[in-house]
Amino acid sequence: MRSRSNSGVRLDYYQRIVHRLILAHQEPVTGLFPASNVNSHAWIRDNVYCILAVWGLSMAYKKIADQDEDRAKCYELEQSCVKLMRGLLMAMMNQKDKVEKFKMTQSPYDSLHAKYSSKNGLPVVGDNEWGHLQIDAVSLYLLILAQMTASGLQIVFSLDEVSFIQNLVFYIESAYSIPDYGIWERGDKTNHGEPELNASSIGMAKAALEAMNELDLFGARGGPASVIHVLADEAHKCQAVLQSMLPRESNSKELDSGLLCVIGFPAFAVDDAQLIHNTKDAILSRLQGKYGCKRFLRDGYRTPKEDPSRLYYERWELRMFENIECEWPLFYCYLILFHAFQSDKRSVQEYADRLEKIMVRSEDGILLVPESYAVPQDLVGFEYQKPGSQAREVVGRCPFLWGQSLFILGRLLQEGFLAVGELDPLNRRLGAQKKPDVVVQVVIIAEDNEIRDKLAEHDLHVQTIAEVAPIEVQPARVLSHLYTYLGRNRKLGLSGRKSRDVGILSTSKLYSLKDRIFAFTPQFADLSRFYIASDNELMIDILKGEINFLKSAWDLLGRPLVTLVLKRIHLDQDKIPLAMIQTMRKLKSGYINGTRVMLGSLKDFLNTSAITDLSFLGSTEDGYPDRLHPDVQTYLDEHLLRSFSNRSTMNLRGGQLRPRTLRRRMSCKGAIKKTRSINVDSDNLGMEGPSPLTERRLSSIVPPPWLQPNKQSHVSVFATTPEEGPSSPRQLGHELSVRENIYPVDPHNSTRSAIDRRSEFVRQQEMPKILIQRHRADTNFAETEVEELIAMLRETENLEEQGDILQYLVDTQGLDFNTAGLGFKNKSDDSANANNAAAGMLEEGRVVTVRDLLKGLYEKACQQKLWGLVRHTAGMLGKRVEDLAKAVTDLLVRQKQVTVGMPPNNEHTITAPLPEVELRQLIHDAYGDDESTAMLTQELMVYLAMFIRTEPQLFHEMLRLRVGLIIQVMAKELSRTLNCDGEAASEHLLNLSPFEMKNLLYHILSGKEFAVSSVARGNLSIVSCKSSRVSKKSQIGLGDPEGEDALIATIDDRQGQWLRRRRLDGALNRVPRDFYSRVWTVLEKCQGLAIEGRVLQQSLTQEMTPGELKFALEVETALNQIPQPEYRQLVVEALMVLTLVTEHNMVPTLGGIIYVEHLVHKANQLFLEDQRKVQGDATLCCAKIKDGKEQQQAASGMLLCGGAAYICQHLYDSAPSGSYGTMTYMSRAVALVLDCVPKHGEMECAIS
């Protein structure tokens, strides 16, 4: 035998170690590794990590193969890898039905198993006997499969296996919204079996999706059929959620060493170098010990205090595990690899030395990595006193193969047998490097020649759809349909991709199909979707947002390409809207909002765009891979014909009004307005009296008096005298006083006083009216009435009136009431004109339901941009925003909970993603019959999701988004700016165009000052106030109907500034930085904190760590009991003063339960005393010397200044700092109320 080179001898030494420690355990039949000699279960995750050392060694041999036996060794090692990866593949393919089912249910019981029998690859525990749903394990498998395939191994043998792997990609693609049990198989750290969203799973899934994208599983020998396709948007969602979570692992684990595999080898899932650095530092500073790292804080696994007889922990006992958690040498192996990939030799050496000290030597001198180190039972007391001082002992398996395998990889890298690039053939490690700027290509296409010519007038030259041929332009929904054919396999019973959604990254590519090329318009431009799409300004705003998003998110080959079709429907009175022209000019200039863009035609961009081959649409299973699947063929043929044809809308036009119907018109008038529930007038937001719900429901369920079924047994048609009628004026007056601002305001006569209007209203009541009863034997009367209404509907041109009539018809007859043929049988004298009037609307004999009429009205309202009516009819038709579920998910996965409904009695919290239908039901239940506000809620959720994607910084320090409160604050802000009453403000709010609505929401989230100016047709426009001049005078350009000069109200803006700010922060639930973890320190020093009747017990500190999200949510829930936002904000300030007391260690303990509101009220008292001394503003209201009458008033809960919760309005409006600032009073209140603070003597006072 020839002599070996030194390197060869050294490699042979590693080969012996790998053989004895790892390969000796591989099962000959399945190729899997059992967990230990006594446990034959094979975990997916551990198996994949075990084989990495074998794969690394095979590549090291491949390089020095100077003799035949080296080649043989190399081949043998490679085949061991293939054997294991295929063993796992077979075990998972046996559960293919689960993969299919999981796409629909995403239930933990339908997930692939986390472990199999190493003897035969079959399941070893039942679906519900183990936390099987571990997305990181399946993702790790796919990631390593991709890396091994790229390194030249052939693991997948047949196209059926390719289909299965494609379905595994679907299995993990929604990882960002699926709570799982995570890398430690625990879920919530109390181990009660509750899954949670884990950053380590999301990161691993993101890495697997990126690694699998466009990968040919047959390696260099494959063709189009063996390529895996991934929708880039899914990987990007995983990345966005991951970035928003790090360095947090999950709700219950504020930090986890398992994140090392996400920020470094093998996943390299984070693109932001700073975030990688922060996450690693957080792990090292809080979890690193002498013997490795702890898995997470308060991890009780294998500690001497753990009760081995049960799987779960009691919540209170988690505190016992603090400082005695086991330390795992495994993480030193990760850190060595992490630094080796960063080529930081010093750190690699440092961790290698640390690791050597804690490894165990076997009899024959091999170094073994033990599983973990625990504090011995008898030393626990000393370890508690001085963490890290005691020697620990090995517990668990030794060698721990997962760690041992990574240790060997680290050694091969250190000794130069492997280069980092060989362990990462897909170059994932380069993800965090700086990328060049993305140039976004934009193509605008005209629907027909007419529109093309209109654009040419503005010097914008575009092509029409016909002219771009042979490239075909299709809407995004066609692409989403084509993607459902991906991964279908009859033999395996797999049905292809389920999700219907295609994002902007997918539509920004070109697609080739045989010899055709497709371009797809983005999903947001699909008009058939929702009324938001008919607001041109909003569409332009979204377009700018998406272009900006592409700039940061695009990482494919080639440049992104956004294709837009300009259609007839976009025209405004036959002209191209100015906003569109301006935007196109901006695009032409080459820059828009800081992003580089190029405007051109499709053929110019063919060579520079990303092109994806849709080869999976061939009939491969029928043996004709070159022919299109017949279903696809028919779908495309049909679709090409109708994708851009316009639908005709129903016509509700009629002749002139007849005086006969005037009376009836009054009866329906304002039917829509009665359903509104936004409450602005009451000074305490959200405080609508004792039982707001019943009262509001009354307003919409109790029919107007003239519609109440008569109380008498026989039916009287005309109730002529008030006594006979449903309610006498006396009752009526009473009813009116209860629900004052429910009755409609006539926008044209808003100048008359309310009393005038009310008396007129009562007069109306007394006029004889026809009574309707819904279920009545004798239906003639109902019919006459409905007929009259429908005749009237045909005659009126005014859409608002049509809306009122239809609202009334829906209330009385229901949506499916057939109106066909009604409204003709009028009195003979005018039946002729009635027939002519209606001729345009009906073809004979067709059923026209109220719903059809509503649809027609909805479409016309969209065209005429009457947004209040649009929102209301959309609500009545039960429309829902297409992306509603997606929007809510976007918010939830970034750890923001959402609540809908008006606080305090009617608020529902959404804590987990729900399907569309359930969401819509929940929202509409929360608002009762108020369809407009329910629609507005859906709309605002979509905008909030847009903002959290593009400007996450707006949401810092906010945990729950309370949409009901946000709506109230929006109305309140409008009423402040416009100087109008609450009802007018909520009308204005509901009539804002979607673009202005989004704009207003943005100003409220960012706290920027704004003014309102009026634009054409009485619509309002929200403008930012940049210069100080504007913010002093809030400008209102609402001319009143008489056409007088516009009013300009000047308000001294300094007054009310702090009140407004507290109100906004309170409604948005914004808190100071590190607020929740500081409250934790306060809670540690007292027995509890009482807020609005909720007590936060000290025991919470036993269960949860300071930075834990679950703790923050507990505090937040208590604060949310307070309905008035500004009062809530003062309570937050009081808590901040308490944290200062604890942080400066003024006192050892704060005593018993602290009632936080007492502090606020005490501060208010001190404030009023000072006000009396200096004769301040508050002497006009709360600081007055009281006489009997006023005391009585105060007792009944009315403050003169209208301050919420008995706190003077002027205190709310004081700045926090300064000698009359709120913090000063709070500190004095704390000193007075808490017994533990010494009353006399000098104290250090540090309040900043």
Automatic annotation (TrEMBL):
Under Pfam families, the record lists:
Glyco_hydro_15 (PF00723), KPBB_C (PF19292)
Domain GH15-like residue range list? 8-964
Q: Which GO terms are recorded in the biological process aspect for this UniProt protein? A: glycogen metabolic process
**A GO cellular component entry from the record:** plasma membrane
One term of GO molecular function: calmodulin binding
**Major localization listed first in the record, in broad terms:** membrane
Pathway stated in the Swiss-Prot or TrEMBL entry:
Glycan biosynthesis; glycogen metabolism
Domain Phosphorylase b kinase regulatory subunit alpha/beta C-terminal: residue ranges: 978-1172
Cellular localisation: Cell membrane
Can you tell me which residues the record assigns to a coiled coil?
A: none
InterPro entries (UniProt xref): 6-hairpin_glycosidase_sf (IPR008928), 6hp_glycosidase-like_sf (IPR012341), GH15-like (IPR011613), KPBA/B_C (IPR045583), PHK_A/B_su (IPR008734)
Work out whether the entry's keyword set contains Transferase. Answer: no
Q: What membrane topology term does the record carry?
A: Lipid-anchor
Keywords per UniProt: Calmodulin-binding, Carbohydrate metabolism, Cell membrane, Glycogen metabolism, Lipoprotein, Membrane, Phosphoprotein, Prenylation
What is the stated purpose of this protein?
Answer: Phosphorylase b kinase catalyzes the phosphorylation of serine in certain substrates, including troponin I. The alpha chain may bind calmodulin.
Family that this chain belongs to? Belongs to the phosphorylase b kinase regulatory chain family.
- Official protein name in the record: Phosphorylase b kinase regulatory subunit
Gene symbol? LOC108076778
